[in-house]
């Protein structure tokens, strides 16, 4: 007997969402009209980091300045048959020295961005934090820019990489850094919308994330965090879905339509971002803001599109700074 039971027993079949990558192509096309950004590629002593610089250079996104042990870099280039003769090499002895030199080049204006090579993230960021010429008064923070078929626009998730357990003041800086990423990515004439995530959508004195969310809302209202709309606490469902927000009787201009999701800690942000990239196959880009130059961070697991989009973000940030659009 043939089983004629329908595959889906609900009233309506699930909506099939096709990811066309249109937003990725729009960004790449926008960058095609802009000059490449001189970028210190820190310690590119393996195939992956050297090829990442090559791919970005071929797309005219960056002009690489390779900072690291010159002979090791040249050896890797020869092994993978990459011609680096047109690129400047700044010879350093080891990874810490490479990071220090990259920060010096950025502080002096010789490069306009820093790109992580074959070294740890904290090695790249430490000399940036300690270099007076690169400080802005804000904490550094990471933004994941996401384009997923399940959402109607770019979505920024923060902070999944740098700040482990941010306090209220750090979260305020994270908000402003993410807003700068959003302004660089878009030229929309409106305020960016930030949803502050928690496990629940009501303030609970025993849950610090909800207290921080309420305080951030008031800080935005009093312009301590200027030029953005913040709402929270919001659980993920009512942050991202207007229907879920309506079901909970939440009246908000942010719920269901955020540009930025501020997670309570690094674990929540990291899990959310990686779920979108590895299960939902979202296009993603990673960038660290808060210094005078953007820092391009990619993971060894990132695909080519993610690497190129991260470099494209740095191009857009440089352009936004030239145009005075960043706060």
Describe this structure in words.
- By secondary structure, the protein is of the alpha/beta class.
- It folds into 2 domains: 22-135 and 291-327, Rossmann fold, CATH 3.40.50.10950; 143-285, Isopropylmalate Dehydrogenase (3-Layer(aba) Sandwich), CATH 3.40.718.10.
- The protein has 11 helices and 11 strands.
- It has an 11-stranded mixed sheet, with helices on both faces.
- α1 packs across α11 (304-323).
- The radius of gyration is 21 Å and the shape is globular.
CATH topology of the largest domain: Rossmann fold
> Which series of helices and strands comes N to C?
HEHEHEHEHEEHEHEHHEHEEH
**CATH architecture heading of the largest domain:** 3-Layer(aba) Sandwich
What structural class should be given to the helix and strand makeup? alpha/beta
What global shape is seen?
Answer: globular
What would the average pLDDT be, to the nearest integer?
92
Secondary-structure blueprint:
Elements: H1 22-32, E1 37-42, H2 47-58, E2 62-68, H3 70-79, E3 88-91, H4 95-107, E4 113-116, H5 121-130, E5 141-147, E6 155-158, H6 168-185, E7 193-197, H7 208-221, E8 229-234, H8 236-240, H9 242-247, E9 260-262, H10 266-278, E10 283-289, E11 295-296, H11 304-323
Parallel strand pairs: 1-2, 1-4, 2-3, 4-11, 6-9, 7-8, 7-9
Antiparallel strand pairs: 5-6, 5-10, 10-11
Helix pairs in contact: 1-11, 4-5, 6-11
């Amino acid at each position: 007997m043939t089983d004629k039971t329908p595959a889906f027993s609900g009233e309506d079949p699930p909506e099939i969402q096709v990811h066309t990558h249109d937003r990725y192509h729009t960004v790449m096309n926008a960058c095609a009209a802009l000059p490449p950004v001189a970028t210190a590629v820190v310690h590119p002593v393996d195939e992956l980091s050297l090829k990442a610089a090559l791919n970005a250079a071929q797309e005219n996104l960056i002009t690489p300045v390779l900072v690291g042990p010159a002979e090791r870099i040249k050896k890797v280039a020869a092994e993978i048959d990459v011609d680096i003769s047109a690129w400047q090499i700044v010879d350093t002895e080891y990874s810490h020295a490479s990071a220090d030199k990259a920060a010096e080049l950025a502080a002096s204006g010789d490069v306009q961005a820093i790109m992580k090579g074959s070294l740890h993230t904290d090695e790249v960021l430490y000399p940036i934090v300690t270099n007076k010429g690169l400080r802005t008064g804000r904490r550094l923070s990471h933004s994941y820019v996401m384009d997923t078929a399940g959402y109607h626009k770019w979505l920024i998730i923060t902070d999944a990489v740098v700040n482990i357990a941010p306090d209220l003041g750090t979260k305020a800086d994270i908000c402003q850094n993410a807003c700068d990423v959003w302004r660089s990515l878009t030229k929309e004439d409106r305020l960016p919308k930030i949803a502050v995530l928690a496990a629940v959508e009501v303030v609970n004195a025993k849950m610090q994330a909800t207290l921080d969310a309420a305080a951030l809302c008031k800080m935005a209202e009093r312009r301590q965090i200027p030029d953005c709309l913040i709402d929270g606490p919001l659980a993920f469902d009512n942050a991202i879905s207007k229907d879920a927000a309506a079901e909970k009787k939440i009246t908000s201009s942010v719920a269901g339509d955020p540009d930025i999701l501020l997670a309570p800690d690094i674990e929540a942000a990291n899990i959310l971002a990686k779920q979108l990239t590895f299960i939902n196959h979202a296009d993603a880009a990673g960038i660290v803001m808060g210094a005078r130059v953007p820092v391009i961070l990619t993971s060894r697991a990132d695909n080519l599109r993610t690497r190129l989009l991260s470099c494209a973000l740095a191009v857009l940030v440089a352009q936004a700074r030239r145009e005075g659009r960043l706060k």
